[in-house]
Write a structure and sequence with these properties.
The structure holds two protein chains of two kinds.
Chain A lengths: L11 E2 L5 E4 L3 E7 L5 H11 L9 E4 L2 E7 L2 E7 L3 H11 L6 E4 L4 E7 L3 H8 L14 E6 L2 E9 L2 E7 L3 H11 L8
Antiparallel strand pairs in A: 1-2, 2-8, 3-6, 3-7, 4-5, 5-6, 8-11, 9-10, 10-11
Helix pairs in contact in A: 1-2
Chain B lengths: L2 E3 L6 E3 L4 E5 L11 H9 L7 E7 L7 E7 L5 E6 L7 H10 L10
Antiparallel strand pairs in B: 1-2, 3-4, 4-5, 5-6
The complex binds zinc ion.
Chain lengths: 187, 109
């Protein structure tokens, strides 16, 4: 049996204006269906143990959570070891409706950017207003980082968590390092 | 800079978060249409200096299609609206009229 590792196997970087680190293995489930359905809402809430998120919001609690991806798509976060059980539970709960529950944990990479200048780093890479007045903990945004798609939210007022495609993990890590290079604070 | 607000998810961003989908409100001509109508549908596009109606997709965001009414000279956006309509809603036409009195675009004014 192969050892399961994250895309960059725990890479981290501390030499710039913010800390950049790979997030340990994270369970991720794409859940699509009718958001108006009480059964879907209940199944999602049961899977993550948090309440159903508003538009462009994330409800996160440690490595569990629900992220609003589109009007018919949620990203369900859960501990990596529980992801298959969660997919089974979602599939059982929704079996009479039109839905999709897919384990995408190994198709994604996740990073954290933290520190007092974390917002500077994100502002350089995304066409998004990440000023404290416009974006804070609880908000969730899908956008692009330079040339690739990414989604992110804030774990606290100084920490962003980013999800991108696993095949683009090295590119995103390198982007973050360049955007966080020493002396590049936005004043 | 062209700034758009997706009417589906409410996110505002500059145009690189979106993808342009060409002219809005085309009527599809299929089998049985005459040659002139099919040519018009396939090839003939508006290229206005001023008010334009377009389709856009929030490609890096929620992934959904929508419509935008904007000015091609100033990049001012008069409004964005649902993809599930066949013509611009009155509310959008009123917003354009407030900024560009006397405007017209194809059959709309
Ligand atoms: Zn959108």
């Amino acid at each position: 049996m192969s050892d399961v590792v994250t895309a960059l196997n725990g890479a981290s970087w501390d030499a710039g204006i913010a800390r950049v680190e790979g997030v340990p293995l994270q369970g991720m489930i794409t859940l699509r269906g009718d958001f108006g359905s009480k059964a879907l809402q209940a199944a999602a809430e049961a899977a993550a143990g948090v309440s159903f998120p508003d538009v462009r919001s994330a409800q996160c609690n440690g490595d569990s959570g629900l992220c609003w991806m589109s009007p018919d798509e949620l990203l369900v976060l859960c501990p990596y070891a529980e992801v298959e059980a969660k997919v089974s539970a979602l599939s059982d709960a929704l079996k009479d409706s039109h839905f999709l529950a897919a384990n995408v944990s190994d198709a994604r990479a996740s990073f954290r950017v933290s520190g007092p200048h974390a917002r500077d780093v994100m502002a350089k890479l995304c066409p998004v207003d990440v000023s404290p007045a416009a974006f804070g903990p609880g908000d969730f945004r899908r956008s692009r980082m330079a040339q690739v798609p990414a989604a992110f939210w804030m774990c606290d007022s100084d920490t962003f968590q980013i999800i991108c495609f696993r095949s683009q993990a090295q590119y995103v890590f390198d982007l973050l390092k360049v955007a966080a290079q020493p002396g590049s604070e936005i004043n | 800079m062209l700034m758009l607000t997706c009417p589906v998810c409410g996110a505002t961003a500059e145009e690189t978060e979106f993808h342009a989908g060409g002219e809005a409100h085309l009527k599809r001509e299929g089998p049985g249409s005459d040659d002139a109508a099919f040519e018009e549908y396939l090839f003939m596009r508006e290229n206005p200096k001023g008010v334009h109606l377009e389709r856009w997709r929030h490609v890096y965001g929620c992934g959904k299609w929508f419509h935008a009414a904007r000015c091609t000279t100033t990049l001012e956006v008069f409004g964005t609206y649902s993809a599930q309509v066949l013509e611009p809603p009155q509310e959008i036409k009123d917003k354009i009229s407030a900024k560009r009195p006397g405007w017209s675009w194809r059959n709309y004014s």
